[in-house]
Amino acid sequence: MAFRKPSLLDLNLAITVASMTAAIVFAVLLLTRYLGLDAKIAFCWQLFLSIA
Q: What pTM value is reported for the model?
């Protein structure tokens, strides 16, 4: 894989994607905590990690 200097556009895109991802994750966490589903999701996540 050839290394090239990242342009400002690439950096801007990366920041946008990262902030969108963070916003989605935060919204999901907030929603699950509000609905009281965090315990169920934590259990499912532990199950998934034990299988994977």
A: 0.49
